[in-house]
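Re: beginner question about structure tokens

> Can someone show what the tokenized structure looks like for a real chain? I only ever see the sequence side.

Sure, here's an example I had lying around. Input first:
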Amino acid sequence: MYVSDCQFRDGHIVSDYGRPYFVAEVNSSHNGNVEIARKMIDAAAAIGCDCVKFQSWSARSLYSATYYADHPIAKRFVDRFSLSPDVLAEMAEYARAKGLSFSSTPYSEEEVDFLVDTCKVPFLKIASMELNHLDFLSYIGAKKVPLVLSTGMGTMEEIRRAVHTLEAAGAEQMALLHCVSIYPTRVETINLRNIIGLRKEFPAYPIGFSDHTEGDAAAIAAVALGAALIEKHLTLDHTKVGMDNGMATEPEPFAALVEKCRMVQQGMGTEERIVYPEELEQRRKMRRSAVTTCDLPAGHVLTRADLCAKRPGTGIPPDRIGALVGRPLRHAVAGDTVLEQGDILEDITL
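And the corresponding structure tokens:
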């Protein structure tokens, strides 16, 4: 089995079938409040995530002026839920002080430069919406920093073209995320087997899962499929008003999800068949041995009718009963007795 990996700038390595790297996606759940943003970083650290991720957007980098003119509420939302570069830099330092990696999703070249050069992010996250924004992808790829590319809304051909564009620009370290851009994602549209499909299509890069589902089943299943990275939206309170809060996960269930995923990954093991030392001890208790069916005198030549198989597995194993037939007993043996090598005049190969 071929396993690919990607090394981030802070030394973290994500790999298929390895310890899943957890990203707590804050997005807009901070509601533009710096104190809430800090509390979300605290929560991500307590949960056991590896990274906390924000969104580096501004009104100018998201929508056109004509769109805002037709949808004034959109402008108010973007202004309310965006964080200034200074605040993002502060959040990056705060996250690192809490033992977390910090990253963000840029929506302009200026934001790319700021995240790479000022915030020193370990990787840049590329949003699904950018799959066909080839000039922007080329700019990002030329930065030659590790990348995490989401694939929501994209056809396989669009994903191929995006990856090729990034590679041609100079990108080398990259991970791809299976993603469905439906919020929340319905069970019948999760299509987790596409993790396998992406792995076959892009064997050089580890594949993760950007999870927009409710609950933890999809993330756990993704880890069972070898997902290298799990990204899930975090909120302190999903009942609060906000663009993200209704579909995001609160700290307690998020922590349970991380714990379950870690357990599943530990339990996946390898394709190699292993018999553990504890199992060898169980053989003595749970397997059968050759057992006499009746009282037998010394020198008796064993027949098949003299033998059956019962627990425990401390004697001659049942797959050697055929080799016992025709061999004489060293001494008398009572019925319903486990036979051992010492009971037979001639040792048999076990």
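Each token stands for a local structural state, so reading them left to right follows the chain. The first strand starts at residue 5 and ends at 7.
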